[in-house]
Amino acid sequence: MNAVHAHFPDSDPAIDAPRAALDAFGYACLTVAQADGRCLWRSPLARRLMAEYFIGGHFERGFLPPELLLWLHREALRRRAGAPAQDLTVLAQTPSTYNPTMSAAHVPSNARKRSLSKRLSFRLHEADAATMGEGQWLIVMSDI
């Protein structure tokens, strides 16, 4: 069993159908626990986009990357204070001396050029506490 399946159990048809429908419209979704950034479920498109945009292996181990967790915590505090929502947009991480886990030799030049123009947008929605539990959030992503 690989690390991804350890955190995300085998598929459930009752859950997979709504995920696939969201993916078909270009929206990648995942739910996370605010306390530790643990991903509770995610759509197939969310899995693909997170792997495409982030390095470091956090998401593969079932957690948000640190930069997304910081945004989640900040946005949750802002929402509770009554502030308007602020989305987050990121560029794909690219090879550099600051990203030692990804060497430029392993990334084709056309992929490097494409990653400079792509952006991933994140929007946070509070999950229904009665349905999902306290402190859980829905993140909707779109590739722009």
Describe the structure.
- The chain is of the alpha+beta class.
- It contains 6 helices and 5 strands, in the order H-H-E-E-H-H-E-H-E-H-E.
- Strands 2-1-5-4-3 form a 5-stranded antiparallel sheet.
- Strand 1 and strand 2 form a beta hairpin.
- The N and C termini lie far apart (33 Å).
- Residues 1-10 and 102-106 have low confidence and may be disordered.
Which structural class do the helices and strands define?
alpha+beta
Mean pLDDT: 76
* Portion of residues within helices: 25-40%
Secondary-structure element series: HHEEHHEHEHE
Share of β-strand residues: 15-25%
In short:
The protein has 6 helices and 5 strands; from the N terminus they run ααββααβαβαβ. With 144 residues, it is of the alpha+beta class. The protein has a 5-stranded antiparallel beta sheet with strand order 2-1-5-4-3.
Lay out the secondary structure:
Blueprint: H1 3-7, H2 13-24, E1 28-33, E2 39-42, H3 44-53, H4 66-80, E3 88-91, H5 109-117, E4 119-126, H6 129-132, E5 136-143
Antiparallel strand pairs: 1-2, 1-5, 3-4, 4-5
What brief labels describe this structure?
144 residues; alpha+beta; 21% strand; disordered N terminus
